[in-house]
UniProtKB/TrEMBL annotation:
Keywords on record: Glycosyltransferase, Transferase
Description of how the protein assembles with itself and partners: Homotetramer.
EC number per UniProt: 2.4.1.15
Gene Ontology BP terms: trehalose biosynthetic process
Family statement: Belongs to the glycosyltransferase 20 family.
Coiled coil regions, renumbered to chain: none
UniProt-recorded name of the protein: Trehalose-6-phosphate synthase
Organism per entry: Pyruvatibacter mobilis
Transferase as UniProt keyword: yes
Family matches, as Gene3D superfamilies: Glycogen Phosphorylase B
One of the Pfam families matching this protein, by short name: Glyco_transf_20
Length: 464
């Protein structure tokens, strides 16, 4: 069995089940079974550039990390990754800031990380690179002579070619993707948008799941990421989960609750969601004083001004809606800017009658899957899901909404709140089947099977 090297911006956490997300757990599992290295950023920003590796061994796996200088962090992470690629890949061209210096920083970090990893690469290794931070990584490794199979998985959407071409260096980025052997996308729609770009923009050809261009061939497929469904269902019955469930139901005193759990990010459609909740209260007097919205939204990327603006906007909206509808013994919106241990989160999901997951655009959205997995099979809640989340392609038995349609979302909340038990159970059973079959283990093994079956031609840059 080949040894595995995982490359991602953040490394870990490992061995901390309360904090580790499904992805971290899945990657650690993969690394444990084949032995291997998890390589990326330490999470520390230092004044001067210093690309010395920090090695830490944790059983059969090694964590290999490097620091980022303040300038590189600003240009690579806050700049090109989060001000250019993140909004563009989420179809938000209006928010994209492009700056040549930021792209230079992004290239510099990709090159420096590739150079730091190279001495650790052995003859039978497979290299699995994650997400939009490292689109140039394979190109850089190939330049240094690495001929091992290298795969990429994009956790976020891939944009339509008309949007991608607004980025001044779009061709350079896509060309660099052809230095990978396998490109993994969340959905076939994302993969097809990549194919469309290759065909229409740079004159490449597509044959089955292979794209050929720039004298190289890359295999591109959808591998929808899943969650650890069984563990999540069990979390709801751990001490922490039960405690959270009991205290939430106690506090609700027979009233009902809609829950939203998202990083505080403009892709998640939070203002639209608050508007829709307000509309639902306007339309349905019977839900006033009876249904509340719990929105959990821990801040992220606080250095980027759009994220600061969003926080202020949501605080204003929650204040306005509460001022308008609250009663002395009922608060319509409870808005919490903090994170929870995963067990506790499972308890909150289970105590909530509706899960509201309404991003404007999302690669997959794991919260949608977690909400369903945490439900009580005998009395499950209802998932209301945006058609623009990758998860909507699999979870067709959710109540599907258009997050831009405030009235449609308000109506959907009412449908969910009044859904009979039989229909709730029926939808839950169908959703759970997909979520358990296409879980995180399935994602990992199908990706790694594809990567290990790459017959690498041993020439610089992708197989010919
Ligand atoms: P994204 O990757 O864009 O943040 P996802 O929904 O795909 O969106 O994944 C978010 C992950 O972060 C989920 O596993 C979710 O449980 C976790 N998460 C989100 N908010 C919180 C919170 N307040 N506390 C703990 N975990 C959270």
């Amino acid at each position: 069995m080949s040894r595995l090297i995982v490359v991602s911006n953040r490394v870990g956490p490992i061995g901390d089940a309360a904090r580790a997300g499904g992805l971290a757990v899945a990657l650690v599992e993969a690394l444990k079974s084949s032995g291997g290295i998890w390589f990326g950023w330490t999470g520390d920003v230092i004044e001067e550039a210093d690309t010395r590796l920090k090695l830490e061994s944790a059983g059969p796996l090694t964590l290999a990390t490097i620091d980022l200088s303040a300038d590189d962090f600003d240009a690579y992470y806050n700049g090109f990754a989060n001000r250019s690629l993140w909004p563009l890949f989420h179809f938000r061209t209006g928010l994209v800031q492009y700056d040549r210096d930021n792209f230079a920083g992004y290239s510099r970090v990709n090159a420096a990380f590739a150079k730091a990893l190279l001495p650790l690469v052995q003859q039978d290794d497979l290299i699995w690179v994650h997400d939009y931070h490292f689109l140039l990584f394979a190109e850089e490794l190939r330049k240094l002579g690495c001929t091992r199979p290298i795969g990429h998985f994009l956790h976020i959407p891939f944009p339509p070619r008309e949007l991608l071409t607004t980025l001044p260096n779009h061709e350079e980025l896509v060309k660099a993707l052809f230095a990978f052997d396998i490109l993994g996308f969340q959905t076939e729609h994302d993969r097809d948008r990549f194919f469309d770009y290759v065909r229409m923009e740079v004159g490449g050809s597509i044959l089955g799941d292979k794209a050929r261009c720039f004298n190289r061939t890359v295999t591109a497929r959808a591998f929808p990421i899943g969650i650890d469904a069984g563990t999540f269902a069990n979390f709801a019955s751990t001490d922490d989960g039960q405690k959270q469930f009991a205290s939430m139901r106690d506090m609700l005193r027979g009233r009902r609750q809609i829950i939203g759990v998202d990083r505080l990010d403009y892709t998640k459609g939070l203002p639209e969601r608050f508007n829709a909740f307000e509309r639902m209260l306007e339309d349905h007097e019977e839900h006033r004083g009876e249904v509340s919205l719990l929105q959990v939204a821990p801040p992220s990327r606080t250095d980027v001004s759009e994220y600061q603006d969003l926080r202020l906007e949501l605080e204003g909206m929650a204040g306005h809606i509460n001022g308008r509808f609250a009663e002395f013994n009922w608060t319509p919106i409870r808005y919490l800017n903090r994170s929870f241990a995963r067990q506790a989160l499972a308890g909150l999901y289970r105590a909530s009658h509706v899960g509201l997951v309404t991003p404007l655009r999302d690669g997959m959205n794991l919260v949608a899957k977690e909400y369903v997995a945490a439900q009580d099979p005998e009395d499950p809640g209802v998932l209301v899901l945006s058609r623009f989340a990758g998860a909507a392609k699999q979870l067709t038995d959710a109540v599907i909404v258009n997050p831009y349609d405030v009235q449609g979302m308000a109506d959907a909340m009412n449908v969910a709140l009044t859904m009979p038990l039989d229909e709730r159970k029926d939808r839950y059973t169908k959703l759970m089947k997909v979520i358990s079959e296409e879980d995180i283990g399935h994602w990992r093994t199908s990706y790694l099977e594809a990567l290990s079956s790459v017959e690498h031609a041993g020439v610089t840059g992708g197989s010919l």
